[in-house]
């Protein structure tokens, strides 16, 4: 075999080599540009038209937004999102971090226990919603079980109570997502430098204090990722509501994603649906952009 | 490259070429989008398909299951926007006029068939107006459902000591009380929004009469929607709601119908498609179950008409197929088979006047008699809860207000009537 010459031929293949990564990524970038940003722009345009059940391009100014603000159902959905999102993210973080800290204590059968906590993540939201709908059903589920076991005065009818049904959504969503957050934090905890902990122990800090003041602050990137993921699950929650309560009773457990779907597709009010979608986008951007900015800015200083 | 690799490459490249199915000797292909996918409905559609194919056309089935047509309508809209609508699609009520106003429906293809088969005299005026746009036929009606029925299990009534089927709201409440005392569920009801609104429009029809119903739910007159009659109707609705199945929230209608069939509940307010549940359980009309008009509405008939609309096609060859489908749908054989399977009555006036000769059961015969009678007196009204009276946006506004009213124990009828007026005004 002759040895290959060290200096390669110039041009075509070199240029190809430089351009190859860009070429390979180009289709995905194109799809993201068109499919994601392009359609967001289209929705934005549609929210200023008077589209009913097919897109039309007659300019209607801010009329759709005005109608949206007059709509009682939209306000209920927005309030539900704030309550559901806030409680879901908060409770899941607390439960996830607590479980991760407990599992980090070098216990026996850690792998087995970790798998059990992670299992709910494998279910789709539809299955979670349906299963919890049965569990929380007043006549058939936990309600009846505890009464049959002897606790006569127990009543868990949150699912059919318009004021409390959001909490049922929170229960089901927290159950599903806690395991995943626990896994994220466990991975983060495993990456913490043991020397810091030993130094803190020499200083006389108790274990809870070590976790609270030393370890958790160093896990800020994990918190950041966890909040991003949970916020995105909370805002796009459609399948959970559809499976569990279908927005009911009445429309007291409606969420913006479900509102947008039913107004755009089932009720033929595409203009209003687009306006609601743009408002949802605005809400997300209002939260994510400052958080992103603050987190990435800190990183650069490290 | 060895032989296997070469074969694999050859197959991959060959599969890139589109394989088109050649329908030999076909006079044309028509694609039909519909949602008749349950057992009895599918049997009826197969009759239509067989006849159309016997006439020499190719039937391309575009069945989209589920959601009472919501999924099918979404599919239809995406195809229409993409410029590729099917030849025929199942669209009903004011949606037909909305689609026609976009220019997507074909106003010419049914002209000749309508003239030959004399559709104007074969169909009641209200029925033919539903499928016309600007005086031209753009769709063919398939069947007529009556919505204001009350289904009764006579065994349960006997056990509770009720001797007469209720004909007024007072008798309805008395029967409900007796059923409650005997331990039965008085009114089986799955609290989904469309079911709540079905009960709402039945109560409105009973309290405000056919004229009041028309003014409020069809003409959307603000005075009728917020006036004292509507407040009275809402108060009665609250009373009816106290007899509803407490565990039924969010249940499908057929599960609740099952409760009446099994003898756990006494009554259900539902359209005549409920008959298919009874027939599937091998019950006989008049003996195992009874159908009466909702108390107070025996001189009124709220209808729900299924229809197939024809779309403009780029390929002019499908026109003959569309006309054939329209002809077969209004033919006596299909009308009989479809309506018997679905629990409805035919659209043809000549068939409606001699229902017993076709083998329809007693409920269908009563429905046909009432249809013909109410058509003359103005008691024939489109059903709001089933998208026959208004656009989907207005219907959605009704659904929201009514279902919230029924589910809120502190709701005030006068307040709700005002909310109703405001919601309808903003949705119009």
TrEMBL record, chain A:
Cross-referenced Gene3D superfamilies: MetI-like
Parts of the chain that traverse the membrane: 23-45, 81-103, 115-135, 164-189, 210-235, 270-293
Subcellular locations according to the entry: Cell membrane
Gene Ontology terms: biological process: transmembrane transport
InterPro entries xrefs: ABC_transporter_permease, MetI-like, MetI-like_sf
Alphabetical UniProt keywords: Cell membrane, Membrane, Transmembrane, Transmembrane helix, Transport
Record domain ABC transmembrane type-1: where: 78-293
One GO CC annotation: plasma membrane
Membrane topology: Multi-pass membrane protein
Protein name: Glucose ABC transporter membrane protein
Organism annotation: Pseudomonas extremorientalis
């Amino acid at each position: 075999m002759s040895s290959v010459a060290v200096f390669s031929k110039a041009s075509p293949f070199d240029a190809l080599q430089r351009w190859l990564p860009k070429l390979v990524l180009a289709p995905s970038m194109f799809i993201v540009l068109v499919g994601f940003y392009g359609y967001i722009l289209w929705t934005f345009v549609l929210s200023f038209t008077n589209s009913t059940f097919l897109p039309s391009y007659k300019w209607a100014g801010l009329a759709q937004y005005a109608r949206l603000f007059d709509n009682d159902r939209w306000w209920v959905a927005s309030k539900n999102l704030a309550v559901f999102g806030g409680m879901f993210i908060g409770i899941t973080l607390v439960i996830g971090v607590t479980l991760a800290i407990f599992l980090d204590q070098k216990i026996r059968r850690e792998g087995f226990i970790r798998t059990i906590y992670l299992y709910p993540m494998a279910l789709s939201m539809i299955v979670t919603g349906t299963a919890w709908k049965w569990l929380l059903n007043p006549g058939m589920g936990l309600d009846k079980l505890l009464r049959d076991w002897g606790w006569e005065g127990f009543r868990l009818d949150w699912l059919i109570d318009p004021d409390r049904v959001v909490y049922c959504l929170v229960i089901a969503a927290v159950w599903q997502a806690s395991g995943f957050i626990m896994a994220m934090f466990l991975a983060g905890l495993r990456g913490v430098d043991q020397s810091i902990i030993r130094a803190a122990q020499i200083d006389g800090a108790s274990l809870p204090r070590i976790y609270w003041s030393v370890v958790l602050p160093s896990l800020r990137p994990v918190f950041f990722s966890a909040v991003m993921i949970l916020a995105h699950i909370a805002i796009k929650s459609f399948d959970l509501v559809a499976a569990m309560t279908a927005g009911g009773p009445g429309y007291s457990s409606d969420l913006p994603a479900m509102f947008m779907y039913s107004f755009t597709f089932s009720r033929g009010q595409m203009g209003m649906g687009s306006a609601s979608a743009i408002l949802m986008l605005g809400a997300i951007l209002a939260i994510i952009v400052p958080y992103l900015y603050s987190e990435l800015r800190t990183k650069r200083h490290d | 490259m060895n032989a296997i690799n070469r074969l694999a490459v050859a197959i991959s490249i060959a599969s890139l070429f589109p394989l088109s199915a050649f329908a030999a000797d076909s006079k044309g292909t028509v694609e039909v989008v519909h949602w008749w996918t349950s057992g009895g409905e599918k049997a009826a559609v197969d009759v239509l398909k067989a006849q159309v194919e016997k006439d020499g056309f190719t039937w391309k089935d575009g069945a989209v299951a589920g959601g009472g047509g919501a999924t099918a309508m979404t599919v239809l809209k995406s195809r229409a926007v993409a410029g590729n609508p099917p030849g025929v699609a199942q669209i009903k009520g004011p949606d037909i006029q909305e689609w026609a106003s976009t220019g997507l429906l074909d106003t010419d293809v049914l002209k000749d068939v309508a003239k030959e088969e004399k559709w104007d005299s074969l169909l009641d005026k209200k029925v033919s107006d539903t499928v016309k746009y600007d005086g031209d036929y753009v769709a063919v009606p398939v069947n007529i459902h009556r919505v204001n029925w009350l289904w009764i299990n006579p065994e349960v009534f006997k056990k509770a000591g009720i001797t007469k089927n209720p004909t007024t709201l007072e008798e309805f409440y008395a029967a409900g009380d007796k059923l409650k005392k005997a331990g039965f569920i008085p009114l089986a009801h799955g609290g989904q929004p469309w079911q709540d609104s079905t009960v709402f429009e039945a109560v409105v029809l009973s309290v405000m009469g056919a004229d009041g119903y028309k003014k409020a739910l069809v003409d959307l007159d603000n005075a009728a929607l917020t006036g004292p009659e509507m407040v009275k109707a809402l108060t009665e609705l609250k009373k009816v709601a106290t007899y509803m199945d407490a565990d039924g929230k969010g249940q499908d209608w057929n599960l609740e119908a099952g409760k009446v069939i099994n003898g756990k509940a006494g009554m259900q307010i539902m359209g005549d498609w409920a008959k298919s549940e009874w027939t599937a359980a091998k019950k006989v009309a008049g003996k195992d179950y009874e159908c009466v008009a909702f108390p107070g509405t025996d001189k009124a008939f709220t209808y729900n008409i299924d229809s197939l609309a024809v779309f403009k096609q780029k390929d002019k060859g499908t026109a003959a197929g569309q006309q054939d489908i329209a002809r077969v749908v209004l033919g006596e054989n299909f009308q009989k088979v479809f309506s018997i399977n679905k629990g409805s009555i035919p659209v043809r006036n000549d068939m409606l006047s001699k229902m017993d000769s076709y083998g329809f059961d007693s409920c269908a015969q009563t429905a046909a008699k009432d249809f013909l009678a109410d058509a003359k007196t103005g008691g024939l009204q489109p059903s709001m809860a089933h998208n026959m009276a208004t656009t989907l946006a207005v219907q959605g506004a009704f659904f929201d207000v009514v279902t919230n009213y029924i589910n809120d124990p502190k709701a005030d009828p006068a307040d709700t009537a005002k909310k109703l007026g405001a919601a309808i005004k903003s949705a119009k």
